[in-house]
Design goal:
Four copies of one chain form a homotetramer. By secondary structure, chain A is of the alpha+beta class. Chain A contains eight helices and 18 strands. The longest helix of chain A has 21 residues, at 327-347.
Chain lengths: 352, 352, 352, 352
Amino acid sequence: MAGSSFGTCFRVTTWGESHGKAIGVVVDGCPPGIPLDEALIQTALDKRKPGQTAASTARKEPDIPVILSGVFEGVTTGTPIMIEIQNKDADSRAYSDIARLFRPGHGDITYLAKYGVRDWRGGGRASARETAARVAAGAVAQAVLDSSGVEIKTCTLELGGVKARRIDWNETENNRFQCPDRDVVAEMENRVKEVKKQGDSVGGVVEIRAVNVPAGLGEPVFDKLDARLAGALMGIGAVKAVEIGAGCEAARMTGSENNDQILEGRFETNNSGGILAGISNGDEIIARVHVKPIPSITKEQKTVDENGKQTTLSTKGRHDVSAIPRINPVCKAMVAIVLADLLLRQKAVSCS
Amino acid sequence: MAGSSFGTCFRVTTWGESHGKAIGVVVDGCPPGIPLDEALIQTALDKRKPGQTAASTARKEPDIPVILSGVFEGVTTGTPIMIEIQNKDADSRAYSDIARLFRPGHGDITYLAKYGVRDWRGGGRASARETAARVAAGAVAQAVLDSSGVEIKTCTLELGGVKARRIDWNETENNRFQCPDRDVVAEMENRVKEVKKQGDSVGGVVEIRAVNVPAGLGEPVFDKLDARLAGALMGIGAVKAVEIGAGCEAARMTGSENNDQILEGRFETNNSGGILAGISNGDEIIARVHVKPIPSITKEQKTVDENGKQTTLSTKGRHDVSAIPRINPVCKAMVAIVLADLLLRQKAVSCS
Amino acid sequence: MAGSSFGTCFRVTTWGESHGKAIGVVVDGCPPGIPLDEALIQTALDKRKPGQTAASTARKEPDIPVILSGVFEGVTTGTPIMIEIQNKDADSRAYSDIARLFRPGHGDITYLAKYGVRDWRGGGRASARETAARVAAGAVAQAVLDSSGVEIKTCTLELGGVKARRIDWNETENNRFQCPDRDVVAEMENRVKEVKKQGDSVGGVVEIRAVNVPAGLGEPVFDKLDARLAGALMGIGAVKAVEIGAGCEAARMTGSENNDQILEGRFETNNSGGILAGISNGDEIIARVHVKPIPSITKEQKTVDENGKQTTLSTKGRHDVSAIPRINPVCKAMVAIVLADLLLRQKAVSCS
Amino acid sequence: MAGSSFGTCFRVTTWGESHGKAIGVVVDGCPPGIPLDEALIQTALDKRKPGQTAASTARKEPDIPVILSGVFEGVTTGTPIMIEIQNKDADSRAYSDIARLFRPGHGDITYLAKYGVRDWRGGGRASARETAARVAAGAVAQAVLDSSGVEIKTCTLELGGVKARRIDWNETENNRFQCPDRDVVAEMENRVKEVKKQGDSVGGVVEIRAVNVPAGLGEPVFDKLDARLAGALMGIGAVKAVEIGAGCEAARMTGSENNDQILEGRFETNNSGGILAGISNGDEIIARVHVKPIPSITKEQKTVDENGKQTTLSTKGRHDVSAIPRINPVCKAMVAIVLADLLLRQKAVSCS
């Protein structure tokens, strides 16, 4: 049944397959009067464009967004905003060989189990291409958040086992991996090249921070801010773990270490990641996602065909070696959508 | 705005505060004809009852569920099932001292920021007591899942830094921590006692597995099975990280290591945790949660009062030293609710 | 699947069967800081209490509401408000004879078709008794609306074919039928008595007006104010038609007759019923419902039993002769819930 | 906030303004494996095309639907189906004169009250043009219903005061008004011409019937079939009243007249309109809508401008004289969407 919508007040509905005519998103519930144009969305899309690092696919999509509704004379009108991105460089030929095979690590086998039919071209609906629509919606969400001064940033903490040893937020825009530690960028580059040569792929870790988030966002007890963030981030294709604040480390701390003691006007530490009892506390929101390696590899793997017969497969197609850094703007977009939605939901907490 | 409901086809709505007259849950959308009585719910509630380990609070709630609707002649009727649990042992006196202070690590400060008023008695709505209602709902969800043979189990992988070195599922019911490794139980017990003496608290790690989950559950692209699980689990009070399958480790594997190659009728490994592209693949569903230490500690901590004035606080009240193992049945309940909902949603994927 | 919730920001979930232990409602999303107590809800419930007119059932329920959560120190806290009403006078004996028969005009046959099982005692979930929970929720909604000065009133335009010839709103509280025309009250009374003697029942027409509704409420294009009102009112058991403003008459007017021309600060007429393009225009909201006669009659009727065998039935039990006037506070409650929800949703239209 | 989606399992989200680049709809939750192509949607759209009767606007939109996603190799895949219709003949010049005026009977004044900005071109989002997207979605819904043999038909019972005196369903496709009584077609035609000459407009009554609807559809107590139908139909622009079955007449019947007595395998009458306690009973679903006259008339009317200054207005633009018969396929579409959604929801009532 329907599952392609996200959000309550600010609701996005994505549509489209990897090799269909187009993909896109309807953003419903965007407040009126917000300046919005295609250039703003283009800027966001450009950050997830393929072909910018050695880690990226050879597929070259211009990813030009067209706004078809909801904007009049340069501002949003409060009605649904439809953003469409045409698929220009879809090449399904590489996929026809594997149309009846299940690629390991992919949704081929589960989509067939679920629906009984599947669009095998480029992964169909399960392709990471769908995330372009999320990024477009995230740009709209960010425009909503701008009114509150909320800013969201991401960095690559780890790639293929190479870890950033420090976080310098000024550095993230200076290198192709959005790595916050310039000293390990070369190492990341080498790791990616090496793995590519082996016909393999790598994963990594991305941190997302949101600053200036007003206290009070999140709707107990099931739509808490952390619950919404976790759902939003885990719903991105390659993500296998989500941490908030101290995250996994919190499990090894004592209460006296982990509690953020409260000083006048601020917290002494931020192990909570800016969220207490599922509600923002005014501090920085901190989340991290752990991203699995891209499943499409040229190394030969065992699999079965649609009849269950054993065979092997070596993925061709055009693929990234790592979902990082292209996943970074997707994470940013999802966090923006969560925050915009909860910001608007918080308006409805008061009737005066 | 409204945030106390969870699920689409199988929808639970919890209500109640820690020291109010009662807490409870409405389970709407439960299929008809399922045997259900209070004994079945009692069994589930007994597993999260306080007072069973050294880690537990001294508050003694009998936690007796009463079914007020939705069941007739021993079976569900398809109408809303209301389960109520009276609060018997609520003692608000220990809280009156801190009624105007914000306890570090708690939602006191954020509830006030959000709502402008707050029920300070025992944490009000933010209390872990609310999870009793989830456990009751989880028992109903499990009754739904029984028809598909789905079974959910949990174990304590880590407590206060003490790790299980092996997982023996037969062992988990034999000790008070639901630890799957009998060799470390004593060590866990000692760790908990030691921390209690220090007026401190500890966290840990819980693993949840669901077996016999049919392939095909999960609704792309925003209500994927892993997204729903992450949201459901992160929405439990003390949880700060959620992993699926290989989880954080996946970020350090290569694609050839991480991909679960496909053999006739099964997968060679289960790094995916039974979920591909957000849809169950028929293998075991595996999730882990990282639980922060209980924030209520007797050690003195810095905080401010409602006027922003600096002060210190040493929690009295009656509290657990660790959310584990009482959180285990809550995790189990949330996973059951997610699976029951997605099982029913999958029915609606077909019109024939 | 789940269908017992209504509303998005202000969401009510009713539960309970006619002859179960209790019925009730969870009101989630009520803004915090609103004065609320049981007396206020009692006042609303008293208006739908049976036994006040010749048209009413002999069942005497005290209908005492108990607030179990969501209110602290006399005001709402923003958390779910659970209101419970015990069933005291449920007498299922009269129903045991007809436990395997389908009463014409009732949901017996459709509940069984839908669920495969049914609680036959007093109509189970389909009983009008469920509307007591709606009235309780409506009282909370009205408390929300009070902050905007919104007032909702109802009157009985027609009963058993006897029509009010004029609307005097001061008159409605002066007679037992909430009839706005004192000159026809005796006639209504006679009609009801006559029909009762015949073992039959009657229907009628109720008008609902909401004044001081701010302009701007209603969410195009599917959650328009008129669409929400129509859904809310048609969802009340005996309602078979809903009109807004000029309603059916509008179909016979020309555009120049029907259009409400706009003067400075007001409309010349109110054929629209205060709603243009699904959004409130600041004028009075006007709705009318057409209510069918109570299906439970003592006259013998043809029916079949659960095995499909032809038989006859003469309803015993204790029943109203007309749903009017007891349906009036239910209509008022549903309109209040719709308006409170849309009032809060409108807050989320702006992000500033 | 978001209000452009309708349905739970089968969910449609429309987008687009009258004079924007395009309008369209995302249909999410459509079951997989259903044959669907643009021709099927075109057939449905052709029935609401302007320019077919004297009652129609002069605007000539080809209304060519393009399916951009969710269909592969001729069948639905279970993923969102995006259908786009370009606006070709939008001519905003006639509207620029009245860009700062509020047209009586239109949403100009309420959209501005709600959003603070508005797209004045051709009514923007409030234009009946949006219903083309609903008709497209309705065609998909009908494809879902085909699997159950459900058939939906409509007829014009009344137009400009001219009433059909009998219903001959074979007749409705033989005349331009979808009138079921050939003897009054000429009279309708004359009435429309006369009104047009006067610069005025007319309304009417449309009946919708759905046959072969399985018993059991509808989700008590708020998503009852009649409640959903009423909401869906009242949400169509010009509709001011909705009746189910005997409708308004039921209010004047006694219980013994109104109850549909039950015979073996069928009901003796169908005053209920096929719905008992909000659930389909297997009989024909009957609904009627009362449609107001088109508010755009060339007769001069009083209004104010955006500054509240009194003025007069005579609508130019290109408009229908009556919403009938173009509203008929829109009613049919909304009923199809309601039924498809409830058909799928009913699947989720059972877990076996």
